[in-house]
Design goal:
The chain is α+β, with helices and mostly antiparallel strands. 50% of the residues lie in helices and 24% in strands. The strands form two sheets. Strands 1-2-3 form a three-stranded antiparallel beta sheet. A three-stranded antiparallel beta sheet has the order 4-5-6. α1 packs antiparallel against α2 (47-77).
Length: 162
């Protein structure tokens, strides 16, 4: 595949969803680091432990700053398209990946939604094949349902009632 952009993109809410989830993870990480600093002081651990914790804080700050920019770059890099023969995915910031999944190899198509995605009315699609799994991380709800139905129709999957 050449360096062309595929015709469909993720939901514009993807960057907000990613920033919110990364922020929650970073807050939890900083709380854990704060507790470790308190334990270090309370139990008078060796001096090198303090410097290791300072290094971890520095790495956590860098990670937090990067996560803000990463979501924008991921959104810009993600695209997909499909027809009756193939599902094509293109993504990646530093290492660009192009994935082509033949419709005949698709075994299941599922949709998932976490609490943050629910807030922004988006869903993720998971496409399973015999040897691998591929995900489209954030689509508007109606687009996700239509894509799931279309992929299932093209792949000739039968719906299983639970």
């Amino acid at each position: 595949m050449n360096d062309r952009k595929l015709k469909n993109n993720l939901s514009p809410s993807f960057t907000k969803i990613r920033i919110v989830s990364e922020t929650i993870g970073n807050i939890v990480g900083f709380i854990v680091l704060g507790v470790l600093f308190w334990v270090d002081r309370f139990f008078a651990w060796p001096d090198w432990v303090f410097w290791v914790l300072v290094g971890l804080v520095g790495m956590a700050v860098c990670s937090t700053v990067w996560s803000i920019f990463e979501s924008t770059y991921l959104y810009r890099s993600w695209s997909y398209q499909f027809d009756d023969e193939y599902l094509q995915l293109s993504y990646g910031i530093f290492k660009k990946q192009w994935v082509t999944v033949p419709m005949t190899k698709i075994q299941s198509v599922s949709i998932s939604q976490g609490p943050i995605m629910k807030r922004y009315r988006t869903r993720a699609i998971q496409v399973e094949t015999m040897g691998s799994s591929h995900a489209i991380p954030a689509l508007e709800e109606n687009v996700a349902y239509e894509l799931r139905e279309t992929l299932a129709e093209y792949a000739k999957l039968k719906e299983v009632d639970e």
